[in-house]
Specification:
mainly alpha
Length: 262
């Protein structure tokens, strides 16, 4: 959804000086506007799918980062077009939420909260995972061994079977130790450096910001879940990083001297 949002904002047609309202309406029928409407439809479909997934841990960071990206675009270069677009996107998200039902969604969030804080819940699992890290600090227990090691540490109140720690950062430390933690920290640092590097073309900057917010939403989700343990999500995550790197390289090629645009 962030890639579609980035393409949509970067492709917005700026009104020409002296252009009449009739000319602006006619411009909605050209090929560029049709592609923008297609992107808007894609964003709507993905948002509806996200809402109907009933996954609070996925919905909250995803929507929060999407709102942050839209507000940033409005703040940087405000225009009536962008304001109307953000309002239309809000309708696309909140109409299906209203159709699903307020109590259904809030009930799911209450369930997640109870699952985290109740005795034997995720908080207890995270505490025990920290103990695994303490006992195997250097190289961990081995990749993919959490489900076999954790039963030796779990509390008596934890009756559910936890194949994953529901926090991939802790699970990486438990399975790979300090060595894996250093690699993870290095990867996060390189992604942040690529995201916040020098900027050049406007369209490239918008797309790179979109990729950055997408990766941020994934990073927040990983703190309470294990989405990257699913191959399809990991493939999408890799694709986002690849897009971010290619956009940064393209901007460097446009600005070989390192100059930045105001």
């Amino acid at each position: 959804v962030f890639i579609a949002l980035g393409l949509l904002f970067s492709r917005l047609r700026e009104p020409q000086s002296g252009e009449t309202w009739r000319e602006r309406l006619l411009a909605l029928t050209d090929r560029r506007a049709s592609l923008n409407l297609t992107l808007l439809l894609c964003v709507g479909i993905i948002c509806v799918g996200l809402v109907l997934s009933y996954s609070p841990a996925g919905i909250a960071p995803g929507l929060a980062c999407a709102v942050g990206f839209c507000l940033l675009q409005l703040r940087q270069n405000w225009s009536l077009q962008k304001t109307l677009l953000v309002g239309l996107l809000a309708l696309v998200v909140f109409v299906p939420m209203y159709g699903v039902g307020y109590w259904t969604l809030t009930g799911r969030y209450a369930l997640l909260t109870n699952e985290v804080t109740m005795p034997g819940g995720r908080m207890a699992v995270w505490r025990k995972t920290v103990e695994i890290v303490r006992d195997f600090p250097l190289l961990g227990t081995g990749i993919g061994t959490f489900q076999f090691v954790f039963p030796r540490y779990r509390e008596a109140t934890t009756t559910a079977f936890y194949e994953y720690a529901h926090n991939d950062y802790l699970q990486v430390l438990a399975e790979t130790g300090l060595a894996g933690g250093i690699l993870l920290a290095a990867g996060v640092f390189l992604v942040l450096k690529t995201w916040y590097g020098r900027r050049a073309a406007r369209s490239g900057a918008v797309l790179r910001t979109a990729c950055g917010f997408a990766l941020l939403s994934v990073g927040l989700h990983e703190a309470v879940d294990f989405s990257l343990q699913i191959p399809a999500n990991l493939l999408a995550f890799t694709f986002l990083i690849g897009c971010l790197v290619l956009l940064a390289r393209g901007e460097t090629a446009l600005n070989p001297s390192g100059a930045t645009d105001a």
